[in-house]
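FORM 7B: Structural annotation worksheet

SECTION A. Query
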Amino acid sequence: MHHPAPSPVTTGPSPAPGFVRAERGRIVGPDGEPLLLRGVGLGNWLLPEGYMWGFGERAASPRQIEAVVAALVGEEDAAAFWRRFRDVFVTADDVAAIAAWGFDHVRLPINWRVLARPDGAWREDGFALVDRLVGWCRDAGLRVLLDLHGAPGGQTGTNIDDSSGRPELFMDARNQDLTVALWTELARRHAGDPTVLGYDLLNEPLPNEWQHVYADDLVVLYRRLTAAIRAVDPDHLIMYEGTHWATGWDVFTEVWDPNSVLQFHKYWSPADLPSIRRFLETGARLGLPVYMGEGGENVPEWLVAAHQLYEDHGIGWNLWTWKKVETATSPLSVDAPEGWADVVAFANGTGPRPPRERARRILDDLLANMPADRCTRRPEVVAAVFRRAPVTLPAYGYTFRGAGTSFGTTADAPLPGVRGDEPVALRRRDGGPVPDFSHPRPGGAEGDVVADLAPGDWLAFEAEVGPGDWRVEVLGSSTEPPRLTVAGRAVPLAAAGAEGPDAVWRGELTRSEGGRVGLRVAAGAAPLTLRAVRVAA
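SECTION B. Predicted structure
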């Protein structure tokens, strides 16, 4: 069933003072200056995902995970588990840590079942969770992007939206009506609050074959949601995601609201301009800002290159995700308690159900490990997204500002699939095929992407350092020392041993104040095969 589509909105009143807004194709802050958003997602809290617990496909969606917990400890204890989970997985301490690490906003994925019942009645306990987070973020100086990650009926037909396996949001008008009512209620409750960054209407709608079936219906729903929100809230940003994991942008042919942003997601793909060019072109054509709303789940070297790519093109970003069980790819890792492997085996159908009392103890121990101060920190993940010392910048993570600014080379040997639009001679060290940038990537050190620089060729990098003493290390192979320039000043390099197949050359520096610095690494009198540049305090 199709609802009548409201006319596209191309003009409208300016947002009230204090709000982040879209203006002339950029996201700008309350002062009207461009605002480069740098955030992190709060996945798993209001919409659990199985992989974040170590579960497989049998326990991938919220409903499946809930069924596992109920089977382990019974319905009553399961309900108590989820109440405690919501109280400990994200707390004021998490928000404080996010702010202390330098992020400026969080993206909050929401399952509609947290906020509403099937009959449309609101769940005040769910709205209280959202309000609590917004309050913590207000106190910490962060903003909150509300993200409908699981809409009524499901917008994806996969586990990530808690659906039954089909995108029934687009198959039943009642689901669409409830979605419109839910966004209207969220907008009504948060109208006038600049702590809320905006409204991310639907997460990753219509992947795979569904993008070819319901794309027109998605446009109709986006326009309907826009009209409903603007009826109660004239100020907040509205964000629209493309189809097929937010990468299918053919649906964006006109401006539905002037105070809106187009959002893409990026995983397991080259960190280069060709991979995002279509997003930039669409944003420029429509005069709307572009935002990378979800990406990560990869090694630090890829995060370095990807986030350099976003920022060099004026794209704000949000890292996925803040916290998971036993992870190397999030800032915080929840330590699995003793016996957790037995719970995972049961959830995956590869092991028996643990006795109820033992299962209860294991779940209690897991909850005890969830607060931020009990988690294992992964500072290398945060260092990578900010390119903040100590950090290792891979050879292919040089800046994205073009010839003469980011690189100077005599060769013309692009590597298809890794910055193939530029002439820099990149290659996989072992001569193997172009890496697919999956995580973990294959090949170990032999699979590193290196840059072959002729004498005088150079690459430019960027890093954030604090005041005081710091150093730069160049890792590569050459018969002569490379040359290093920092902020336009030549820095002498001294041999500092070896690391695997690479020599290490080190330069010592001092800064009176912290900030971002530019680094230029050049081959000296002999060719240089560059693997990485390491910046450390």
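SECTION C. Observations
DSSP finds 13 helices and 25 strands in the chain. Residues 173-190 form the longest helix (18 residues).

SECTION D. Sign-off
Analyst initials: ____
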